[in-house]
């Protein structure tokens, strides 16, 4: 495989830390000591829809990267690109071994239509709907919740089968651990009881989240800080009974980003 | 990357030719002269839910492969594995070049939550719903149709931008062309007018489907034959006004598979 030329330009990462795939890419870069520049986009201010950003990613989604003249989007592809292009990344993140790499690809592919679809659709149709002004679909929420729970069960019985600390029996995390755990972290913004109902039955998943967090500290918590603050705001709102306020705006709930 | 040991066991592909990712994998193997054994599973007879198959793929989905002692599922991962493991596969299918490979990964990742989600959800909530006995959700169908159309537009304006015959300006097809085209082929079972309404505005997509078909003949049409027969059955049904029959079974509509 052709190597990335050593570039005088720093890798640019376009991201919103409230987006789970953005967090996965940023944490990955930080853990691996990649020299990169984070360009913050605020989705709540629709900055990802600007003509300037659409030049970078015509799909208008974060994260996206620019590496010299090369542009790329889709977080899994970005993680794989960085793992292959930057010499400092340790093998366990995306093993060169044909069979282990194939298994990690399989987890990442599975993720899209299962855990990600369940978690994202559920959060959008419960907590984020009212603040984003999106009309919620209760049937979609119910189906997403079912898919989310079955995905968590599958993670336990298939990917976390055995005694490994990470997916596929790994002793060290791969990009699949990081991507899936960042997705689950999004559930932090849910109502606390709901959050416990969803994650409570999955002790192995809870332990694996903790393992992934420990393996990537202090970056994991630092990059999730914005999400933790959003969680607090949502809790305050619930205590004040503001959930039913139709005029509520995203800005009131989300912490200001810098 | 470690190479697959030359194996005395033939590659086994578990597939249902009415499943679009199954077709992509079978066509890929045939076009590349891979020595493989196709093990046909009939989803309509729930053969993918058997304990024997769950030993191969605990997610109970086709396609899946067994290569010696190695088991793998998720069609994109399978295509990548075969491209990397079998020496006869030409480079254009999954280029070794870091940048071109990253772009193909990006298309494949994008596919899951866009074209695939739109097409599959739409077909399930229109044509397949009544015959599979699944309760249809008109709102889900409407949203899926919107996602399907916007995905086709994105393919034209982003991935087929320029004058290449294939995605990303390619002169030869990649695994992304094969995966996405097989997905779109599923729309053949739709009502003819609906099919024209969806694909009609996308001339570039139509040309690209034709290019991908030509590049993979005679295997493309041979592997799609079961789908073409299912399409005819659906059309006959419509002419006879059988769509409203609640007791209709999948068997009556789908051609028997062998």
TrEMBL record, chains A, B:
Gene Ontology molecular functions: glutathione transferase activity
CDD domains linked: GST_C_Theta (cd03183), GST_N_Theta (cd03050)
Residues annotated as domain GST C-terminal: 97-234
Domain GST N-terminal per the UniProt entry, residue ranges: 9-90
GO biological process: toxin catabolic process
Alphabetized InterPro entries for the sequence: Glutathione-S-Trfase_C-like, Glutathione-S-Trfase_C_sf, Glutathione_S-Trfase, Glutathione_S-Trfase_N, GST_C_Theta, GST_N_Theta, GSTT1/2/3, Thioredoxin-like_sf
Gene3D superfamilies reported for this sequence: 1.20.1050.10, Glutaredoxin
Source organism, top-level taxon: Eukaryota
Family: Belongs to the GST superfamily. Theta family.
Xref: PANTHER family: GLUTATHIONE S-TRANSFERASE T1-RELATED (PTHR44750)
Name used for this protein in its record: Glutathione S-transferase T1
